[in-house]
Inverse folding.
């Protein structure tokens, strides 16, 4: 793939065996660090690594068009790991936040898949735009964005409604939605990348707002 052709492992700047050693070292180190908090966090951390590296990357990504959706579970793990590490529990708020990230993932990554559709096609990867086309992909972006917003609303209700978090959500979800609308009417690579970046900013600002609110 052109998108990944300059990565050090691809162009042999890093030896494959060295990459394996470094990856295993990071995995074992993270397990050890999480285990200092508690064993359950360590197990969840190890599960997340195996899920992303093996289940998503090696099994789902080259074999199913739903790779991004099912693989999106990997992105939900950090929220759960953090909760277990700090509180030894998984509360309703944590579950909702994990679902927000789960539904946000396709709405986020499908934009990148649109921008690099030809690249994914040439690599033989069955990404959603490659299999179902641009129009269906844009509809699914809207669907998953809508699902994300619904769960954010549920999070606000369950967390005790605050104008601070609500306002942050309104501002940055609007920016994301405007980028999606522009992509609908201007199906260019630039619009897809702008929508991809807007999704990053949206989730980033939402998570920062949640952290800030918890400190107030």
């Amino acid at each position: 793939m052109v998108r990944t052709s300059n990565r050090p492992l691809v162009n042999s700047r890093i030896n494959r065996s060295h990459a394996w050693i470094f990856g295993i070292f990071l995995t074992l180190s993270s397990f050890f660090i999480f285990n200092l908090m508690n064993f359950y966090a360590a197990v969840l951390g190890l599960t997340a690594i195996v899920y992303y590296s093996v289940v998503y990357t090696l099994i789902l990504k080259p074999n199913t068009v739903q790779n991004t959706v099912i693989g999106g579970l990997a992105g939900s793990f950090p929220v759960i790991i953090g909760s277990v590490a700090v509180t030894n529990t998984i509360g309703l708020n944590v579950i909702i936040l994990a679902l927000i990230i789960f539904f946000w993932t396709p709405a986020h990554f499908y934009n990148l898949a649109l921008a690099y559709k030809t690249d994914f096609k040439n690599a033989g990867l069955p990404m959603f735009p490659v299999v179902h086309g641009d129009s269906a992909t844009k509809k699914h972006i809207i669907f998953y964005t809508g699902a994300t917003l619904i769960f954010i609303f549920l999070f606000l209700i369950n967390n005790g409604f605050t104008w601070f978090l609500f306002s942050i959500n309104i501002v940055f979800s609007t920016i994301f939605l405007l980028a999606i609308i522009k992509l609908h009417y201007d199906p260019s690579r630039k619009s897809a990348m702008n929508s991809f970046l807007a999704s990053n900013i949206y989730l980033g600002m939402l998570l920062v707002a949640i952290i800030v609110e918890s400190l107030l």
Summary: DSSP finds nine helices and no strands in the chain.
